[in-house]
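FORM 7B - TANDEM STRUCTURE REPORT

SECTION 1: FIRST PROTEIN
SEQUENCE AND TOKENS:
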Amino acid sequence: MSNELELSTVSKELLGKIESKTATIGVVGLGYVGLPLAVEKAKAGYKVIGFDVQEKRTQMVNDGINYIGDVVDAELAELTSSKQILATTDYSLIKEVDAVAICVPTPLDKYQQPDTSYVESSATEIAKFIHPGMLIVLESTTYPGTTEEVLKPILEKSGLVAGKDFHLAYSPERVDPGNKVYNTKNTPKVVGGMTAQCTSIAAAMYRSVLEGDVHEVSSPRVAEMEKILENTFRNINIGLANEMAILCNKMDINVWEVIDAAATKPYGFMAFYPGPGLGGHCIPIDPFYLTWKAREYDYHTRLIETAGEINNQMPDFVLERTMKILNEDKKALNGARVVLLGVAYKKDIDDMRESPVLPILEKLELAGADWIVVDPHVTEFKLNGEVHKTHEISKELLQSADLVMLTTDHTSFDYDMIAENSPVVFDTRNALKDQAPSIKKYHLL
């Protein structure tokens, strides 16, 4: 019997398990991507085994304790109590799963180069227990070629061959923490496999779980590149908005009014807004995967790198503006009391990955400012290895400030109370535009 015929047989077996929901699905990495995906797969009727190296995290899942904002507490508790989801640090249970999604971090190292160590270690563990017919899908955002150049060789150390003995594909995560409309279940999915059969099997698995369209592409490299394009598109356009904000400030023009006016055009324009810097795992990081990979082809991604430089300089621009605003009242930043409203990287979430507020705090500290952070979604955070508690907002706290800086526009903030009690406001998000006329001294980014 040929390998091709054997693959056809095991593919049909796996497809049958997918269609009957009798397949056991594994999810490696139970973070912002993995846990919501595990929950959706379990809700669809599959038995799910979640793998994570953090024992505390797996214990919380097994106890039905949710730690991800996009997961419904009651749903997780019900799925774990009914044993539909099991979390473990024991990777030997990989031998019990029919398909596994890898959802581990892919950060940049200190040299702005991709760190694929989490993907590699996950693949190494999977390779120990891989079996014929198994489906393995990488979801972690990474550079084009990772699935074939990094993941495939490690898995094939098992003696099995990708595209012949097991199915291998890439399907980039599309998670937008805090999004009230789109989530894991209803966001369209892109899938690219090592072979057409790999793509078909992976797509069938996602279609059995998700409501969004599943778009098949010709290879993992195409799927990896499209994910980078998504986030690079946002990075560059936010960079343009930030550069416009800097220039408009110098020209004494309200950049927010400019963008709102441009957004009235029904074609050819999409509104992006400035801010104190980029945050989250994807947008500030992913484009640099491509700039790194481009060097292999002797190409310099000038536009991407320029946008990155602009976005990375926004905390410096915020500090410069802060000093000028305080100077108007004949106050120095050294010794000034600055109350920052928000430390999460975007509104209405507790996610602080790559939050631009952290470098702002570092710069304020270096300048000798006395800073205090208020965030209803974050109780504590680390800065340079030291744990800091956030404070509750109050009239007294606002009135005691030399400057109140709005850094994250959480919906739960009482903006009327902020406007009435803040002596000076520096609004980096245009969140107080409706209250602006009543604020004593109001400054926009």
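SECTION 2: SECOND PROTEIN
SEQUENCE AND TOKENS:
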Amino acid sequence: MKEKLLSGFRATLGAEIVRTVAKGVLTVSLARLFLTPDEYGILFLAISVFSASLLCSRLGIPRSTARYIAEYRETDPGQVPYLVRSSLLFLGIVMLIVAAAVTVFHQLLADLFGEPELAPLLLLGGVYISAWTLNSYVHTLFQGFNRITWSARVTIITNASTLLSVVALLLTGSGVIGALTGYIIGYALGAVYGLVLLYRLVAEFDRASEPEPGLRRRLIEYSLPLTVSDGANVVYKQVDTLLIGAFLTPAAVGYYVLAKQISDFVIAPASSLGFTVSPSYGEYKANGELEEAARMYETTFKHNVVFYVPAAAGLIVVADPLIRYVFGSEYLGAIPVIQVFALFIVFQSIDKITNDALDYLGRATHRAVSKGATGAFNFGLNLVLIPTIGVVGAAISTVVSYGIMVAVNIYLIHTELPISPRYLAKSVVMVSGIALSMALVVLLALPAATNIVSLLAVIGLGVTLWALFSVTSGLVDIHSVRS
């Protein structure tokens, strides 16, 4: 089990590094070299519209299918081809309906936001939604097959081709339309590659003479709470952007999206770890090994906060020079948003190692309730805070709502596994002390950071202190890290 997890984690982390580097280069290139803040905001406002539409184009089908594949590939492999075929049929129907609707009503959507520049971007929405939906489908199914390295391949191909396509099209002078087309090409190439692999994988299973009675019904039924969870994700990740676009300016959208993208860069290791270990919780539970599952969650939680609490503290301290030297003075409005989102990074990292685990432990419905309730709360808070305090209000709303949701989900894990809340709390307290010490030293050294090189040196000092404190306190075993 340990070797399987490590292999999957290495592959997923490698893919996340490629994704993070590709998105980082794209973010800096788009914001610094090719697009103005208004154009940057318009591009990602369009992508937010598409991302919100993806809720309806998937309906929780990929994750529901992955859950049943993980079960049936062990108990009744002959049902796996029926699962894949049925899910593809359901997915194709809803995907095409949503894609057609966005394409047909693209002008109406642009008018709702009062942004005429959105219309030509939204016209490409059908193609974007179809490519992204299929890409997400194959990536998630490989997790259900426990072929984590295959999911990693799809991620690498998608992000590498997206980077090359976007930059190549921008260099031709095609502007915002070219950037969006580059994203579509990247998702489409990853989807095609994944579908080819999926076809070969399913061909290895001998199909049963007929599908198990009620199999398709259970597949759809389990997708419903997952759809609620996905809907809450849309609220957390996209609706705030849409509301900023409706209440404020495209430049404000640009500030907010930039801050979110920076937080997304930092979250890559937690995404890799959570994606890798989640199927194992289902295996442990099926075998009655709850103690082992609890120890795995506690260890994962400890190493997660060891990294992310200090990272959040450091980001709060260096947000100003980071934006000033990397993205330029046009994006200084993003600084307070980034500082608020530092707390969001901590909550999101914990969610990454908890969220999918609840699905594989059979608690998708309860997780959906917590996520749906806090998502509705987030939406209402956004309606109050965005018009009153602007783009920072959206960040505050997300942090408060996400923190409540994470607390509830940890409680749900505790009801399933015999984890020790005292152990988790002790890890957080010890790491917080390290983070405060590191941040204080960085803050004192920050006046010496007068350019990007000296800023990197100050950040390096902070990282060195973090590593030293973490090892000497016993939170990190250097021998285990080296091995």
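SECTION 3: OBSERVATIONS ON SECOND PROTEIN
The first helix runs from residue 2 to 34.
The two ends are 16 Å apart (CA to CA).

SECTION 4: SIGNATURE
Preparer initials: ____
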